[in-house]
Structures are given as structure tokens and as C-alpha cells.
Amino acid sequence: MTDTIDGAGPPPTPTSTDGPALPTPRRRRSRRLVVVFVILIAALIFLLVEGLGSSLNYFDTVDQAMAHRSTLGTTTFRLEGAVVPGSIRPTSVGTNFTICEGVHTVAVRNTGSPPQLFQNNIPVVVVGHFTSATSNQFVSNQILVKHSATYSSKYPTRVKVTSGNSC
């Protein structure tokens, strides 16, 4: 006979294992969740940094670009200047023209069709790169023209275009 009150027998004896104790399933699940959240947060931060970094639209004026043209090298950037009157020359692949600011001028070779508002003596922004770190030749694949009244009021310290030659 057993000496238990309910007659079910002695309490079970703990069994011994030969290795380290395995973590409980709950602990493993919480570790997995933490790892998943860390990966998701890292991915979100990466996407935000890449997205914001590539969406910044800065541009250099002709004077700024000429001052640090050796550091710009042949990287693509936006260049702002006024179209020199009489410099627009259509080519078989686009348009060649000169832009200026102050005493500096840059010869632009653009591929593609210029926008309808493109003309002499207006401020433009061209997207492209210098042909070398010491050149004043700029290869462009896009011309951006802003309406002069809107552009002048939005950027009062930028390129000033007057009647006649702007440089």
C-alpha cells in the first residue's frame, strides 16, 4: 500500500539529462521576435537613408561648380546658369549652348530635345557632368527651365537675368 492521500502513487521523480538544459519554447520565440524586429528596423532605416539621400535635389551655380570642379570631377550633378545670347546651336543629337554666371562660362553639349521655353538669356538648370576634372565642357542629358517670374521670386539670390547679356 502507498501512503498517499489520493492513492495515485508517489510523486514523479525528476529525470536527469546528459546535456545542457534546453531553453523553453517561450524564450526561443521571444528571441526570434527580437531578431525579426531588429532586422525590420535596420531595413527601414536603410530605406529611409537611401530614399532621402537620393531625393535631395541640389544644384551648383556656374561660379560654384567652377570653384570646385576638381572635386566634382565627372560625377553627375545639376548646374545652374543663364543661357548666353547667341550661343544656342542645334545639333543632330541635341543642342549645344553656353551658360554663364559672373565671369565664368561653361559650354554645354545636351543630348535630346530642349524644352519649349528654352531660349537665350534665361536661367536654366542642366543635369550632367564635366568631361574632365579640369574642363569647362559639360555633357548634359536634361535641361530644366523655370518660369522666370516664379523662379526669381522663389530663388532671389540665384541667377539674375536682365535684358541683354546676363554675364
Structure class: alpha+beta
CATH superfamily of the largest domain: Nucleic acid-binding proteins
Biggest beta sheet summary: 5 strands, mixed, barrel
Ends: how far apart? Answer: 114 Å
SSE order, as H and E? HEHHEEEEEEH
> Which CATH architecture of the largest domain would you pick?
Beta Barrel
Uncertain ranges: none
The counted number of beta strands is 7
Biggest sheet, spatial arrangement of strands = 2-4-5-7-6
- CATH topology grouping of the largest domain: OB fold (Dihydrolipoamide Acetyltransferase, E2P)
- The general outline is rod-shaped
Fraction of helical residues: 25-40%
Give the C-level CATH assignment of the largest domain: Mainly Beta
Strand content: 25-35%
**What is the count of DSSP helices, taking H or I runs of 4+ residues?**
4
Describe this structure in words.
It is a single chain. A hairpin with a 6-residue loop joins strand 6 and strand 7. The protein is of the alpha+beta class and 167 residues long. The model has no long low-confidence stretch (mean pLDDT 80). It is 29% helix and 27% strand. The chain has two domains: 33 residues; 96 residues, Beta Barrel (OB fold (Dihydrolipoamide Acetyltransferase, E2P)).
